[in-house]
Structure formats: C-alpha cells, structure tokens
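Translate sequence into structure tokens.
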Amino acid sequence: MKVTPLAIPDVVLLEPKVFGDERGFFFESFNQKAFEEATGCSPTFVQDNHSRSRKGVLRGLHYQLPPKAQGKLVRVVRGEVFDVAVDIRRASPTFGQWVGERLSEPNKQQLWIPEGFAHGFVTLSDTAELLYKTTDYYAPDLERCIRWNDRGIGIEWTVVDNPILSVKDSRCDRLVDVEVFE
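Result follows.
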C-alpha cells in the first residue's frame, strides 16, 4: 500500500496494490494491520456507508461532535468525485484549512479522514458511488454542517457555482459560526 500524507498530514491518501490481468483485477480494499502500519492509527470501524450521487451533487461539509466524532475511510467504487477534508480542530496549526483529492473507480485510492475534520465531496462523473467506513455510529443530534462555499475556508471546488445541494446542506453555517473540536 502506498501512503501519501497530504498538506494536512493527518489526512492520508492510500493507494492499494492492485493485481490485474486480462481477467480483471484484485486488491485488498482494507487490511487492519496494513492500515495501522501505514497511518499509525488503529481505529475500530463500526459502520459502512454507501452513497450514490449524480453529476454536480455536492454533499457536505459534514461532521459529528464528540463523543460521537467519526473518522472516515472513503473510496469510490464507481465514477469520480473531488473529496475534501477541512480541519476543524481549533488547537491545530491547520485549523480551517482544507485538502482535496480526486477519488475514482480507476485510481482506487482511498482517503483517511480522522476525527476532527469536516468531510464533503462533489460528483464529477455522470454518477458516483462511494463506500466509507466510519469509526462511530451516526448520531443526528451531534451532526453538524459547514457551508460548502464558506469564503473563510476557500475550498477550490471543481464545479460550477451552483452545485446540487440537499435542503440540509443548503442551510449550513460558516465555520466561524459552528461548534468545532476544542
């Protein structure tokens, strides 16, 4: 497994070893021991999520507060997305900064987003399907959302100015107005 720490080093891009031939391909999408060796983290994943979105759909920026904060291991199994993590740990030197990567079916890369980050993505292909493991269960009372186009964060999304948003995502607040990790 190839491991690439991003500009915010706690967020890590993982690229599996893919074995392919004329029949197709095979790779381990998750191996606890290899993940721990690659990241230095040993989370317990408790929930797998699967989402499907059409082109131009933007989901996020979502997170959960402690004690139900979630780390996420994200991968795309169909299509392509631009996936983003925003550091919302107030004591962090990278607080309010973001990193983003194109995750796709062909590149098979995964993004490890630890607790203390908001997460979002926009669909670049006609449709995209994401699978992501989480380190805690969904807790709607602790879920929060940051506005996708918060100028204080300045994410350079790879879409037009009018992505397709859920009602919930269209009502998110700016980073300066939300609860974050202390």
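Note: The two ends are 33 Å apart (CA to CA).
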